[in-house]
Amino acid sequence: MLIVVFCILAFAMLALGFEMLLVMGVPALLAKAAYYAAMPDVIIPQKIMGGVNVGTLLSIPFFIFAAELMAHGVIAQRLTAMVRALVGHYPGGIGHTTVGSCMAFGAVCGSAPATVAALGRLCYPELQRAGYSEKFSLGLIASSAECALLIPPSITMIIYGWITGTSIAALFAGGLVVGIVLGLAFMVLVQWETWRVGARRAEKPKPGERLAAISAGAWALGLPLVILGGIYSGTFTATEAAAVAVVYAMFVEMVVYRAIGLRQLVAIAESSAVAVSTIFILLAMGALLSHFVILANLPRIVLDFVREMNMNWVMFLLFVNVLLFIAGMFIDPNSILLLFVPTLYPVATALGIDPVHFGLLVTLNICIGMITPPFGLDLFVAAGTLNRPVENVIAGIGRFVLVNIAVLVLISYVPSISTALPKLLL
After folding, report:
1. Statement: residue 17 has pLDDT above 60
2. Could you give the C-alpha distances from 30 to 25, 37, 46, in angstroms and in order?
3. Among 188, 208, 330, 390, which is least packed, fewest CB within 10 Å?
4. Quick one: 133 and 186 in the same domain?
5. Cα–Cα distance between 324 and 318 in angstroms, integer?
């Protein structure tokens, strides 16, 4: 009964606008006082500090720093110019350029908001000049950035791997495939919209211009090759890959492209530190909450409920997708992971669902949550970056949400899409 009370309290605090660290922390502290009063109080700081004292999490500040470096540098411009030179002259070329650029930039930064901020100003004017509507252009930019959460490196997958003990390398391999599937689905929608509105194509670049654009973007494309090649060849771990990403990004932006100076580097480091602090505070409180979730045997309670309802893995995944879709409308990605995965993951494995498959379903649901109102983060980043009303972004997002749902259903019930490559490589 008290568990129900604490859940109601958490949702009430969420609805009232409390910070997520309090939404997770207050119920955990009340659970300690009500259920485990005899437990020494020292367990609280131990779980808070010990929960984040994990080597895997060290990759997060490195990847965030690398993402900030590239978002403030010229890597985004070089990648966009390269993709435009390759496909911009085809029907729907600028739309495909937007999707391809977001996928490429996501592969070097791992952050959806950073992708929107870096590429929005570059792609939006081009989409408008090609004849796409404002709503479609805004929706395409906000949605395409989701691929950054799926195509490695992905901070979301790192946190999921930390919570569940799933191989980060396996998650990265599966995420690459799912990210490509999602990107191709967006390209199909772009092609349909191109035919519908008669969008103009860009002029075909001369061979020399195309070669120059590819050459200019080669250093930027080298980063995912270094990261993924190093991980799957066994040269370094995912954590070490994050440190390599920082060194590589600094070298490219400061030495090769000369786009960032020492003063900018300090400012970028400060903004990265703020972002990292926010994430780690949530992770620390989530570790405390997860401890009491396990002590309360909540996963077993949920599993018994699933069995009583006679759910198989098909119905369970439907339940999970609906639950996470609703949660994504109101809760940030990291909090979704911390609140739901500790309870749902043991149930998923008990039903025989592959941990990598389940992790990619969770990540894909979080992607959808980034663009679903009322609190989809990418909606507000796109509105702020492009100086457009957030209502206009929301108005253009509907078709992309439907495409996301279609891909989610496909990935949910064809597990081999997300598991084939990890099994092949690892």
Report:
1. yes
2. 9, 10, 17
3. 208
4. yes
5. 10
Token duo for residue 403: 């495409």
Q: Are residues 10 and 71 in the same domain?
A: no
What is d(CA 135, CA 382) in angstroms, rounded to the nearest whole number?
A: 12
Contact 110, 67 (CB under 8 A): yes
Residue in 139, 71, 72, 73 with CA at minimum distance from that of residue 110:
71
Could you tell me if 207 and 343 lie in one domain? yes
Segment among 157-166, 232-241, 412-421 with least mean pLDDT? 232-241
For residue 4, is pLDDT > 70? no
| Mean of pLDDT values over 61-87 | 80
As a dihedral over the C-alpha atoms of residue 321, residue 322, residue 326, residue 329, rounded to 10 degrees, the angle is: 40
90 vs 104: CA distance, rounded Å: 19
User: Does one domain contain both 143 and 105?
Assistant: yes
Is residue 409 scored above 80 in pLDDT? Answer: yes
Dist CA 98 CA 191 (whole Å): 12
What DSSP designation does 206 have? P
- Single-letter amino acid, residue 359: G
The answer to whether residues 358 and 332 belong to one domain is yes
Contact 414, 178 (CB under 8 A): no
- The answer to whether the beta carbons of residues 190 and 99 sit under 8 Å apart is yes
Rounded to 10°, the helix 155-164/168-197 angle is 140
**How many angstroms separate the CA atoms of 404 and 97, rounded?**
19
Local structure of 266: helix, strand or coil? helix
Domain that holds residue 86: 40-425
Predicted TM-score (pTM) of this structure: 0.83
Phi, psi of 38 (to 5 degrees): -75, -15
Cα 181 off chain centre by: 15
The vertex-139 CA angle with 134 and 140, nearest 5°, equals 100
Output the CA torsion sign for 292, 298, 300, 303. negative
Q: How many domains does the chain have?
A: 2
144 and 292 housed in the same domain: yes
Both tokens of 23, joined, read 């939404």
Two tokens, residue 139: 């929706």
Whether the pLDDT of residue 320 is over 90: the answer is yes
99 and 33, same domain (yes or no): no
User: What letter does residue 310 receive in the DSSP assignment?
Assistant: T
Is residue 241 domain-shared with residue 183, that is, in the same domain? yes
Q: What is the mean pLDDT of the chain?
A: 83
Contact by Cβ (8 Å): 108, 117: no
In angstroms, rounded to a whole number, what is the distance separating the alpha carbons of residues 89 and 382? 26
Question: What CA–CA distance (Å, rounded) separates 23 from 20?
Answer: 5
